């Protein structure tokens, strides 16, 4: 919950140009995420709510970084559109699955790698903005990781779309069952 509460703080700091403070908030949020995940697995406290909120928080930090940096004209708006469009597509796939009686698809490893790349690349870009002395290295590295992450993000989205199409074409077994206790009494 702390991670989620820090998202608007993080966004506000980026928009205000307080990049070092934004990086500190991001580091704190990341450390609490690592600690929470470790403790949940170690203590057997993994919950469905946690499984939903953890990736949601990751996406919110990615969006906050993108929006804040785009607002300041430090990243182009097209990258924001590319990332948001993919997530809108994933939401639409979820609606299609739900309409066919399925829950969400399991997270694909490629999706995790793409999210990690975005979650790592954008802060590396921010690092160069906060500390201009390292910008000559952090900007190209951050952009390379971010653009690769955006590509992988879409690639994973295509995989999710193909898997959704495959799943909804599977004939559903009727839930209507005969009685296990009554036998056919026909004459």
Task: Write up what this structure looks like.
This protein has 187 residues and is mainly α. Helix content is 75%, strand content 0%. It is built from six helices and no strands. It has helices at 2-15, 19-42, 48-71, 77-99, 109-130, 135-168. α1 packs antiparallel against α2 (19-42) and α5 (109-130) packs antiparallel against α6 (135-168). The radius of gyration is 22 Å and the shape is globular. The protein starts with a helix and ends in a 19-residue tail after the last helix.
Task: Give a quick precis of the structure.
By secondary structure, the chain is mainly α. The chain contains six helices and no strands.
Offer a few descriptive terms:
globular, 187 residues, 75% helix, mainly alpha
User: How do the helices and strands follow one another from N- to C-terminus?
Assistant: HHHHHH
By DSSP, the count of extended strands is 0
Q: Which ranges are low-confidence, i.e. pLDDT below 50, for 5 or more consecutive residues?
A: none
Morphology call: globular
Helix content: over 70%
Mean pLDDT rating: 86
C-alpha termini separation: 65 Å
Q: Please give the largest β-sheet.
A: none
**Oligomeric state of shown chains:** single chain
Helix-strand blueprint:
Elements: H1 2-15, H2 19-42, H3 48-71, H4 77-99, H5 109-130, H6 135-168
Helix pairs in contact: 1-2, 1-3, 2-5, 3-4, 3-5, 4-6, 5-6
